[in-house]
Design a protein that fits this description.
The chain contains 3 helices and 10 strands, in the order αβββββαββββαβ. By secondary structure, it is α+β, with helices and mostly antiparallel strands. The chain has a single domain, classed as Protein Transport Mog1p, Chain A, CATH 3.40.1000. The strands form 2 sheets. It has a 7-stranded antiparallel β-sheet with strand order 3-4-5-9-8-7-6, sandwiched between helices. Strands 1-2-10 form a 3-stranded antiparallel β-sheet. Strand 7 and strand 8 form a beta hairpin.
Length: about 170
């Protein structure tokens, strides 16, 4: 009798939690930025922040779309780089500078930084550990003078959601 009670209790708990899990997963939606030339799947409507950073080769205009869910921050950004930065530095230097800036801003340390591609576009994927606990992943792609940085960071147990987010990134024609 006692076993049946616990089994029934477990079924009732699952029945009450399952709709919440389904709705949390159902909140993911495709978002596209025609100005940025990309689309990505996010857990909710993102907020936009825009900034201009001064560098020794000129101004860098950055637009970042961010959404938070379940202890994880998801962001997709694109930066308009000065042509001279791309010409002089090349993709290797740009990827490394972007990685270093992200790690400094996030307060993290690098685990791996590997070459990847998005179709014919060269990129890099960064895996990192947050100093306060947690983890993150980021992907970097350079298209002409535009640098795309896609980042998911937060609870280490949300690795599957982070990969789902990163894999959803697409460039628009």
């Amino acid at each position: 009798m006692r076993y049946r009670f616990f089994a029934l209790f477990g079924v009732l708990v699952l029945a009450s939690v399952a709709p919440g899990l389904a709705s949390a997963q159902g909140k993911w939606r495709d978002f596209s930025s025609p100005e940025g030339g990309f689309s990505v799947s996010l857990p909710g409507k993102p907020s936009l922040t825009q900034s201009v950073h001064k560098s020794f080769v000129g101004a860098v205009k950055e637009s970042t779309y961010t959404a938070k869910s379940g202890g994880v921050t998801y962001s997709a950004s694109y930066s308009e780089l000065p042509g001279i930065a791309v010409t002089l530095g090349g993709s290797h230097t740009i990827f490394n500078k972007a990685k270093d800036g992200l790690l400094k801003e996030a307060g993290g340390s690098e685990n791996a930084f590997d070459a990847i591609s998005l179709g014919k576009i060269e990129g890099r994927e960064l895996s990192f550990t947050l100093n306060g606990g947690g983890s993150g992943r980021a992907r970097f792609f350079l298209v002409d003078k535009r640098l795309y940085v896609i980042v998911a960071s937060g609870r280490a147990s949300a690795a599957a959601a982070m990969i789902k987010f990163l894999n959803s990134f697409k460039l628009l024609s």
